[in-house]
Amino acid sequence: MQRKLALLLTLTALVLALAACGGNKNDTASESPAGSPAEETASQEIVINATTWAFDKTEYDMPKDTPVKLTLNNTKGAHGIEIVGQGIEIRGNKSKVVTLPAGTYEIHCSIMCGSGHKQMISKLVVS
């Protein structure tokens, strides 16, 4: 009897743990799927290619106060980008339409990707 109860409790805990690991719908809600109205209003697209511990450019430029589609392309490894202090994060091979005021912002990898993770830093110059 105790074995059956222990098995039942273990299975219940497993089901709850798997349900908790389900996708976070809020994480992708602000990302623009292809063909969405937000994507259509973007004036240009900036593609950020991420590879093993590096972005393809040390600096990216975009116009101020203008919607721009930022696209993260993981060419090697699993990476994400965060624009520091702006609450903007893109994970995986996804896009997001963003509008920023003039300034210089730091972009860094937001997914721990290995020993060179801390070196994955670039600039976004908005003018």
- The topology string of helices and strands comes to HHHEEEEEEEEE
Counted up, domains total 1
Query: What overall geometry do the principal axes of the alpha carbons give?
Result: elongated
The CATH superfamily is Cupredoxins -  blue copper proteins
The helix content, as a percent range, equals 10-25%
The appropriate CATH architecture is Sandwich
The strand order across the widest sheet is 3-9-8-5-6
- Mean pLDDT equals 81
**What is the straight-line distance between the termini?**
71 Å
Instruction: Say what the CATH topology is.
Output: Immunoglobulin-like
% residues in beta strands: 35-45%
- How many strands, what sense, and barrel or not for the largest sheet? 5 strands, mixed
CA-based gyration radius? 19 Å
Describe the overall structure.
The chain is built from three helices and nine strands. The chain has helices at 2-20, 25-29, 37-40, and strands at residues 44-51, 54-55, 59-62, 68-74, 80-83, 88-91, 95-98, 103-109, 121-126. The strands form two sheets. Strands 3-9-8-5-6 form a five-stranded mixed beta sheet, with no helix packed on it. The chain has a four-stranded mixed beta sheet with strand order 2-1-4-7, with no helix packed on it. A hairpin with a 4-residue loop joins strand 5 and strand 6. The termini are far apart. The model is unreliable at 17-38 (pLDDT under 50).
